[in-house]
């Protein structure tokens, strides 16, 4: 998104209002050039080592986004059979896809492995099952819980002692016992600390824990440090310093490889970092209500389309695209769902009028992918702007879509 000389916003030269005219409101719009930029930023930061990016596609599974990732050399991390299928539909070979389940039925793991994906084993029972099923005939990674608490809020921290994810590093002896019993071929150690992690320090801490743990596994090829880099949601937010992180982690990784006696590959699986900034949710104001307590701006969207503000109290910057130079006023921006779906409280915006188009920034990650049909509402369309061209990459849902799984019409 750029601000043009006459204070209008544009996405690669395209006026968002034009997109609303053409595809309707509300609308998710992704800027492909931002995704490309973020990928090269990450590649650049780790250019001194053998680093691979596995995009955590739970952030955004639109097939066109996945295809773009594939074209620019990014592989995939998936968490469900559905995401695996989407990866394959986007043209990925199964062996470019890592399956990182969280307590899923074992038949899902089996199907993914038979497909050719590699799995991040996340519990001792799954490791035991893997050993019985495959012995040393298939490789796997182990998801370690390093017992490190970091992340933007408690709901998105995934590596502290109380977290459900992974196998506690304190159970190393049990892990080794099962690995030995079935001669399991462990080719990688994985961990994911959490989301919205700004400082390099937690990344370094978990890296050291994995490097230490790695000494017990002689056949490793991969260390996977997960995702979680912080992006800027609020203007002026400090974010993960990728240059610093790249430099410090790369140095330690090189030392580790020397000690280990072999060149390994370092994997990261970011979601937000790659796609958050690329996305904009456009919505139209339906009612501006001047209540004695508050000025409410209602929009034709709600928690069914972007749940992050309600679920995590997340800040999403809002632009009044129709009146960027209007006088600043204070509003509560709310949705149309029969819940208190407040996008923003006491937010200063250029005067909002009925019919104005608002743009919610940083909606590319965990926006559409966390959307729902609550209140029997339809999901919006999605548009990808790439190489200066806007393309509809998902049509708006219809009432038929809403009804098609009901069997007693
Ligand atoms: N790897 C694993 C194993 C994960 O569980 C996740 C995110 C990622 C990578 C990517 O994390 P990221 O780079 O996107 O922070 N819905 C929440 C975020 C939940 C993330 C869940 N796991 C939000 O909107 O803030």
From TrEMBL:
Residues carrying N6-(pyridoxal phosphate)lysine: 58
UniProt keywords, alphabetically: Amino-acid biosynthesis, Decarboxylase, Lyase, Lysine biosynthesis, Pyridoxal phosphate
Annotated binding of substrate, by residue: 308, 312, 339, 366
Required cofactor(s): pyridoxal 5'-phosphate
Residues the entry annotates as binding pyridoxal 5'-phosphate: 228, 366
CDD domains: PLPDE_III_DapDC
Active site: 338 (proton donor)
GO molecular function, one term: diaminopimelate decarboxylase activity
Residue span(s) of domain Orn/DAP/Arg decarboxylase 2 C-terminal: 28-364
Leader sequence residues: none
Pathway: Amino-acid biosynthesis; L-lysine biosynthesis via DAP pathway; L-lysine from DL-2,6-diaminopimelate: step 1/1
Entry EC number(s): 4.1.1.20
EC class name: lyase
Catalytic activity entry: meso-2,6-diaminopimelate + H(+) = L-lysine + CO2
Function description: Specifically catalyzes the decarboxylation of meso-diaminopimelate (meso-DAP) to L-lysine.
NCBIfam families, sorted: lysA
Subunit organization: Homodimer.
Name recorded for this polypeptide: Diaminopimelate decarboxylase
Gene source species: Dyadobacter luticola
